[in-house]
Every structure is written in C-alpha cells, then in structure tokens.
C-alpha cells in the first residue's frame, strides 16, 4: 500500500512540475511577445533576407514574432574567433523560423545551442564498412544538426543561402529540417505529422521520390534535387525542404504529389509568395 501511495504521489508531483513548467514557458513567451520587434532587427531582415519581402503581411508578422521567441530561448556560440552579433542571430533565426509558420510549434524544443563558424568547418568522424573495418574521415561541412540539441552552421554559407532565395540551396533550412525530423528521437525522413493516417501517404510519396533520386544520382541524370539527398531518407527530406521553400513552382511541376505532402506538413503554399 505504501509503495502504491509513493508511486501515486510521485506521478502527481511529476504532472504538477510539467504543468508549472509549461505555464512558466508560456508566461515567458508572452512577456517576450509583449515587446515590439526591434527596429534594428527589421533593418537586418530587409538587408539580409530577400525572401521576407515576398511573404504575405500576416506571415511577415508571424515570422517576426517567432524570431522574438526563438532568440529569447536559443543560445548562440561563436567558434574560431567569430563574435556573435544580432546580425548573425536574426539572419539565422529568420530562416529557421520560416519552417514553423502556420504550424503548432514549440520552437525546436530539443535545440539548446547554435554554434556558428566563420566559414566551412572540419568534422572528424569514423566510418565502418560492411566488413567491419573502421576508418577515420575528415569532412568539410557548411552545417550539421545533432540529435542532442545543437545545430552547427557556417556564417559564410548562411549568408550565401539567404542572399539567393531561389537557388534551392539553403544550409539553415536544411539543418533545421533535420531538427524537425529529429523531434521524435532520430532522423529518418519522417517528421512528426499532424495525423496518424498521414504517414501512409507520406511514406508512399517520399519513398518513390527518394528512389527516383537514388537512380538519377547513380545514372548521372539531371535532377531538381541535389544528389546529396540520395544519401538516405533523412538527407532527402532536408534537401526537398530546401527546394520546397526556394523552388516551389518547379517542385510542384515536376513532383506535384511531393509538393502536396510538404505543403500539408509545413502548412504553407510558397508558390503564392512569388
């Protein structure tokens, strides 16, 4: 009996703590949103993010509010001597929050830090071949998303991606698509969808498009998607997300079913932004 009461009390305490934690988070966000969007931040949006002007007025307002919450909750760290400025913070936050528009969101709840390097950075890793042999590798990267709460970005590549919103290449969008994919624990190309029945259609459409890209990459056939998307389903989701936001008309023309899945997931229709 005592054990049962102890378990019950523990459960009630945990529920009370979770409830108070959510209440504190909501109260803090409301305080953040009660403040006006800084004029200096608006200037950064105009200077660095051409896509912002294409958004409908309601989405511009929503994006600015998302940026306020994002910057209040996420910690930026400069690497290799880079000094973090509002220009860096706002430029990254705006592109990351583009993926959250019109959606119920907790603002990348697992994400704690954004590490920013001046340029592309080197990552040492190990790779095991089918025979079990492990080899050391050095990769030069523009961005990386980690499951345990970090995104790493090159500031140079971030600026290049922001400056041309129509080329289908955006490192911030790519890495934060991975963050969405990782919210259920690991990246597999299937983020958390709105309804259980959505997964069947998602799986069918994405598997077909992924297999087509794998074939195109193997044959050297031109594709709307970067061949890097053929690496695995997680990379494919990140790559097609870049194309969805930056080349929506071409995506809808060549892969209408894939465009519909992404539009349903992201709850936006970027064709109408152009």
Automatic annotation (TrEMBL):
List, alphabetically, the CDD domains matched.
Peptidase_M90_mtfA (cd20169)
Question: Is Cell wall biogenesis/degradation among this UniProt entry's keywords?
Answer: no
State the family named in the UniProt similarity comment for this chain: Belongs to the MtfA family.
Respond yes or no to whether keyword Cell membrane is given for this record: no
Q: Which InterPro entries match?
A: MetalloPept_cat_dom_sf, MtfA_fam, MtfA_N
Where does the record locate the signal sequence feature? none
* PANTHER family assigned: MTFA PEPTIDASE (PTHR30164), PROTEIN MTFA (PTHR30164:SF2)
State the organism of origin.
Shewanella oneidensis (strain ATCC 700550 / JCM 31522 / CIP 106686 / LMG 19005 / NCIMB 14063 / MR-1)
Q: Which Pfam families match?
A: Peptidase_M90 (PF06167)
Q: Under which name does UniProt file this protein? A: Mlc titration factor A
Coiled-coil intervals in this record? Answer: none
Q: Would you tell me the Gene Ontology cellular component terms?
A: cytosol
One GO MF annotation is: aminopeptidase activity
What keywords are assigned to this protein? Aminopeptidase, Hydrolase, Metalloprotease, Protease
């Amino acid at each position: 009996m005592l054990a049962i009461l102890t378990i019950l009390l523990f459960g009630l305490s945990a529920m009370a703590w979770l409830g108070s934690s959510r209440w504190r988070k909501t109260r803090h966000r409301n305080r953040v949103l009660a403040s006006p969007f800084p004029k200096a931040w608006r200037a950064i949006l105009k200077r660095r993010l051409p896509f912002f002007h294409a958004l409908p007025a309601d989405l511009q307002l929503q994006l600015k509010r998302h940026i306020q919450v994002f910057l209040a909750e996420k910690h930026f760290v400069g690497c290799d001597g880079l000094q973090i400025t509002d220009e860096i913070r706002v430029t990254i936050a705006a592109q990351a929050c583009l993926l959250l528009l019109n959606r119920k969101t907790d603002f990348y709840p697992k994400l704690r830090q954004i590490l920013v390097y001046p340029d592309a950075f080197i990552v040492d890793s190990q790779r095991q071949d089918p025979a079990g042999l492990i080899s050391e590798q050095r990769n030069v990267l523009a961005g990386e998303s980690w499951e345990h709460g970090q995104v790493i970005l090159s500031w140079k590549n971030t600026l290049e991606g922001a400056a041309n919103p129509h080329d289908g290449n955006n490192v911030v969008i790519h890495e934060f698509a991975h963050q969405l994919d990782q919210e259920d624990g690991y990246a597999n190309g299937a983020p958390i969808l709105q309804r259980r029945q959505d997964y069947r259609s998602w799986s069918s459409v994405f598997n077909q498009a992924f297999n087509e890209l794998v074939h195109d990459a193997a044959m050297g056939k031109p594709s709307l998607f970067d061949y890097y998307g053929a690496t695995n389903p997680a990379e494919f989701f990140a790559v097609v997300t870049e194309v969805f936001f930056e080349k929506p008309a071409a995506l809808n023309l060549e892969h209408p079913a894939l465009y519909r899945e992404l539009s349903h997931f992201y709850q936006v229709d970027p064709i109408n932004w152009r």
